[in-house]
Amino acid sequence: MTSATPVKKFNRLLLTGAAGGLGRVLREKIKPWANIVRVSDLAGLGEAGEGEEVVHCDLADREGVNALVKDCDAVLHFGGVSVEGPFDPIMQANILGAYNLYAAIHQHGVKRVVFASSSHTVGFYRTTDRVDAEMPLRPDGFYGLSKCFGEALSRYYFDRFGIETVCLRIGSSFPEPRTPRMMVTYLSYNDLLDLIRASLFTPRVGHTISFGTSANATSWWDNSKAAHLGYQPKDSAQQFSANFPDTAEFPAADDATTIFQGGAFVTTGPIY
Ligand code: NAI
Ligand code: 15L
Question: Is the CB of 41 under 6 A from ligand 1?
Answer without folding.
Answer: yes
